[in-house]
Amino acid sequence: MSLLPSAARRWACIHRLSTIHKARNLGQRFSDPDVVLIGEYHGANVGDMAMGHALKRECYRAGRKSVFQTLHNLNRWPEFGNAVAVVGGGTVLTTPQINRLKQRYAKNPQQLSILGVNYICEEDVQRDAAFLRSIHHLSLRSRSQAVRVQEILKSDNVSYQPDLAFGLFDASLARPKKQTGVVGWNCLPLYASWNGSQWAATDHFAGVKGEHWIREQLAFESTGRALIKRWSVRRSQVVHVPFAVEDWHFAEQFVGRDSSVRQMSYISDPLSVINEISDYEMFVSTRFHSLVLALVAGTPVVPLPYSRKCIDLLHDLGWTQFDDLQPRSAMESFEAATLCVENVKPIVLASDVLGRLRDEAMAPLLRVLAES
Question: Is 248 exposed, middle or buried (0-12, 13-18, 19+ CB in 10 A)?
Answer without folding.
Answer: buried
